[in-house]
Amino acid sequence: MKQPGKFKFGNENSIGLLLCFLLLCSGIRAQEEKKYLRDGNKAYEAGKYKEAEDQYKKSVEVKPDNLKGAFNLGDAYYKQGKYKEAAAKFEELTKTITGNDKLSAEAYHNLGNALLKDKKYEDCINAYKKSLSLNSTDDDTRYNLSYAQQMLKQQQQQQKQNKDDKDNKDNKNKKNEQKDKKKDPDKGKDKKDDGNKPQDKQDQEKSNKDQQNQVSKDAAKKMLKEINNNDKKIQAKLKKQKETGVPVKIEKDW
């Protein structure tokens, strides 16, 4: 018969071995997570953003609550122009980061940057405001907020102009349809008399009409040239704003 003491000793030994095994597995996974993170950072610094994305994903798979890997994954998405994915990742981080106002502010800032690139100006403005509520001294965020507000204003003005143009076009088409439905005696008389006009009179009228068409063409060309020149000025101004503005603050603080 087995002694109770020996049974008890064997049970404690098994528990100890199990704890050692779990600690060993945890240590291995921690090393893997750090390795993927380091490899991702190296690829990121080398401009290999797709490779960095893959490494950060592996890091997050090993440790789902890995804030560093998740934050850097958002950076890698952004650098590749995957703004929707970047926005989704940073929005997720704003909900999971706790007790670190600085990191939360940067997550909101980067969320704003991704939304700005996607031209979702109202949403990015809200993100910048939340970032400033957590870190009111960040001049980059304050500048980006001002820029986004200007872009929103331009977008709203353009939408209004497009609506006005559409309404004017619809009204013009409606008037033309109504006019075509009405009888035009003078127009009918002109058509009837065309065949009885002397040849020289017809030639004169044709010449006058050609001159009018030429004047209209010249006027149209001049107007088109002015529009193109104005458009170039506007584009140059916007390009200058974009080159000197919107500082993209994508940071890794570890």
Structure in words:
It is a single chain. The protein has 254 residues and is an all-alpha fold. It has helices at 4-45, 49-62, 67-79, 83-96, 101-117, 121-134, 139-181, 185-193, 199-244. Helix 2 (49-62) runs antiparallel to helix 3 (67-79). The longest helix has 46 residues, at 199-244. The radius of gyration is 35 Å and the shape is elongated. The two termini are 60 Å apart.
Number of strands: 0
What's the SSE pattern?
HHHHHHHHH
Uncertain segments? 1-9, 20-25, 240-254
Percent of residues in beta strands?
A: under 5%
Q: What overall form do the CA principal axes indicate?
A: elongated
Helix-residue proportion: over 70%
Keywords:
single chain; mainly alpha; elongated; disordered N terminus; disordered C terminus
Summary?
83% of the residues lie in helices and 0% in strands.
Secondary structure blueprint with pairings:
Blueprint: H1 4-45, H2 49-62, H3 67-79, H4 83-96, H5 101-117, H6 121-134, H7 139-181, H8 185-193, H9 199-244
